[in-house]
Design brief:
The chain has 275 residues and is of the alpha+beta class. The protein has five helices and eleven strands. The radius of gyration is 18 Å and the shape is globular.
């Protein structure tokens, strides 16, 4: 039996520094798997990039559930939102196949600099990150949900422009959304690796210190029953603060129909890892 978070919205995520002894929010769960709301700032698992780290999502979940936990996909440390985990290797393999078959609906919310087009697709090959120079196809669909300006001088202009985007990665390359936005010069706000330092500072001065990328919704077929499972991860207070600068909070709600304009012609998925 599938259990979903009570109420219409799951509890708000809190900053990781306040969650040391608090269980992570469970959005959907049954005997085989769970969808967790990962907070920004928590690494998914140990890796060569996790130098000096000893706090990982997978370890917290093993302690929280008192059983084995296998990550079906992962999110960057600075990204918050939906993470799918399985409680055994067989289920993990079955759910991983759903990603490979492109039978997973996933949307992200992002805040970027500038005002991009209303709906567009980026088809731009990316390498696999440090030590993985081979480039592979990478495709992301974007939909602009809202635009706004801050009283922050930008060149000859008295204000700086920003946009709220809904993002649908159709492949799973390393930091795909972040790098595709950089490719367009619509840098993700708060991204210290691929973003724009001046715009990041403008948000820090207004109390927003995190990277503004959130894995908002995740939908997939139950590996046994075929029932369609849908999860929505709540925004944390800092992401809400960023949206509040522009009165964008009402625009952050996902389209319940599941239809996303401009995404019908995207090619098949080539990977199982979310950006």
């Amino acid at each position: 039996m599938v259990h979903r978070a009570s109420g219409s919205v799951a509890p708000r995520l809190e900053p990781i520094s306040l969650m040391d002894d608090v269980q992570l929010p469970v959005l959907v769960m049954d005997d085989d798997f769970a969808v967790i709301a990962k907070p920004a700032g928590l690494m998914a698992h140990a890796s060569p990039m996790a130098r000096g780290e000893d706090d990982f999502l997978v370890d917290r979940l093993r302690a929280q559930f008192s059983r084995n936990v296998v990550l079906v996909h992962r999110l960057d440390r600075a990204t918050s939102g939906c993470v799918l985990v399985a409680f055994d290797r067989e289920t993990a393999a079955a759910l991983g196949a759903k990603f490979m078959e492109r039978d997973v609906d996933k949307t992200y919310l992002a805040v970027c600099r500038g005002w991009p087009e209303e709906s567009f697709v980026v088809d731009y090959a990316l390498d696999g990150g440090p030590g993985k120079a081979l480039k592979k196809p990478a495709v992301t669909g974007f939909r602009r949900l809202a635009t706004g300006e801050l009283s922050e001088p930008s060149g000859a202009f008295a204000t700086s422009r920003y946009a709220l985007l809904e993002c649908r990665p159709e492949t799973g390359r390393w930091r795909q959304i972040r790098r595709h936005l950089k490719h367009l010069s619509h840098h993700l706000i708060g991204d210290t690796s691929h973003g724009d330092g001046r715009h990041n500072r403008a948000f820090r001065m207004r109390g927003v210190h995190r990277m503004l990328l959130h894995a908002h919704t995740l939908g997939f077929a139950h590996p046994r029953s075929g029932e369609r499972i849908a999860a929505t991860a709540p925004l944390d207070a800092e992401f809400e603060r960023a949206l509040g600068l522009f009165d964008w909070l009402p625009m952050a709600n996902p389209d319940p129909s599941g239809v996303r304009p401009g995404f019908d012609a995207l090619p098949a998925d080539n990977g199982a890892l979310l950006p």
